[in-house]
Design goal:
heterodimer; A: 143 residues; mainly beta; Immunoglobulin-like; 10-stranded mixed beta sheet; 1 helix; B: 220 residues; alpha+beta; Glutaredoxin; 2 domains; two-stranded antiparallel sheet; 7 helices; 10 strands; 45% helix; elongated
Amino acid sequence: MRWRPAVIVCLLSALSLVPAASGGGGVSVRDAWIRETPPGMAMMAGYMELRNDTSRPQVLVGASSSGFAKVMIHRTIVKDGMAGMVHASRIELAPNGSLNFAPGGYHLMLMNPKQLLRAGDRAVINLEFRGGLVLPVDFEVRK
Amino acid sequence: MYKISFKFSIMVTTLALAAVLAAVWLAKLDREHESRAMLLPDRVMTLFPDPKPVTAFALSDDKNRAFNLASLKGKWSFLFFGFIHCPDVCPTTLAVLARARGNIAKNTVGAENIQFVFISVDPNRDTASKLRQYVDYFDSSFLGVTGDNAQIGNLAGQLGAAYQVAITPGVENYPVYHSTAVFLLDPRARYHAVFTPPHDAEAISKRFKVVRELEAGNAT
């Protein structure tokens, strides 16, 4: 049948859309952790390894969590011998690429935790991607 | 023919022996100077051949006691400039320094004449009691220090520690930019060495051991 290739293409493209639409597919996170801070601190930092398992770019556009007043994507930069932080409004993940959120670089800045978080506690942070994908990630608090 | 080759073989044997002896001697020399070799251009630490004496400054510590030039005398001091509202660089560095101190304390010479000082460049928010609570979390032996802007600038300037506090009216989380280096001052209050990031506890404690041994050797 002449239309068969078209159907296959349609099916394939529909399949490829599934991961982007569902929770975890397409982008995966490993080693998600939050640094424990002295009690009473208004700011905490979250780190993780973010992987794009698709062959298309994925763009992280924001993050939120019910455990914190606000979550922002920040990057520590060193300029003129001084470290400072800049807000990253969007981070593009290359196809099949990965990005490490690590001390001294990209981090999730977690403002005003709603409860005291100690090592061993967990917090869910939702990563928001362009196109509407929201990926809930379970972060472990570590010392 | 026989004589020449005999001479030749003696020559070769002598040369070979000389080479082996030279290699053994060089290896020994290298072991003896291993400590010094570690101080050659290095990504972890820059050691100053002619340490610059720090001049008078007046800050106060986390128990509201004076922290000044006299506070540096007789001790090795690791100084780090930062601020409490710093989510990434400061806790990372202080955690590394706490581990480095642990390593140094395990050493036979110990950590008795060593102090780790966190100097807040944000006295507007970082009070003495907040500083005490903050440094305590990392290591109860750590000292928190701050002061007025001119005096922070005085000490920071002497060490080349850049910082900038961008206080904005009405903005609670104003940005603070600060040096990421760890400054090492010797017991004569001279700016002796600087550690540059990425900081690593093992690397810092190993190099400090060498620096202290060299300094002890110089003193005797």
